Structures are given as structure tokens and as C-alpha cells.
Amino acid sequence: MGISVWQILIIAVIVVLLFGRGKISELMGDVAKGIKSFKKGLNEDDDAPAETAKTIDHKADDTVTMTKSEDKTKAG
């Protein structure tokens, strides 16, 4: 059971009666501005050069030894 054309028309008439034509056109203008701003933001991202990935060099063979005084403080 879907929504028919008549049901959509009745809902549209009720919305126009409740909010008025001026308020609806103002709202649609705001929606259009939002869409334009969104598209502009997407285009600016495409124009920006891609950043290269940064890596950190790490030596895995470095070892750390614990002295006897550090061992006693950790255990206590």
C-alpha cells in the first residue's frame, strides 16, 4: 500500500496552509544555499593537492634494561 498522488497533494495543501507560502519559499532558499555550499566544499577538496603519507622510522632492536633500584620500586 503506497502513498497516492492525492495523499501527497492533501499533505502539500496542509503544509502551505500551516506555514504560509512565504515561509516555505524562504526555507527552500535556505536549502538551496546549503546545497550550493556543500557542492562548493566538495570542489575545493578536489582542487587541494593530495598529502603524502608520513611515516615514523623506528628501530626495533633498541632494548631497555632495568636497574636493580628500578626493579625494587616497581615490585613494591
From TrEMBL:
Keyword Transmembrane tagged: yes
GO biological process entries: protein transport by the Tat complex
Molecular function terms, GO-annotated: protein transmembrane transporter activity
Key words of the record: Cell membrane, Membrane, Protein transport, Translocation, Transmembrane, Transmembrane helix, Transport
Membrane topology qualifier: Single-pass membrane protein
Gene Ontology CC annotation, any one: TAT protein transport complex
InterPro entries in alphabetical order: TatA/B/E, TatA/E
Listed Pfam families: TatA_B_E (PF02416)
Cellular compartments annotated: Cell membrane
Ranges annotated as spanning the membrane: 6-24
Protein family membership: Belongs to the TatA/E family.
NCBIfam families registered for this protein in UniProt: PRK00720.1, tatAE
Function statement: Part of the twin-arginine translocation (Tat) system that transports large folded proteins containing a characteristic twin-arginine motif in their signal peptide across membranes. TatA could form the protein-conducting channel of the Tat system.
Record's protein name: Sec-independent protein translocase protein TatA
Species per Swiss-Prot/TrEMBL record: Stappia taiwanensis
Gene (name only): tatA
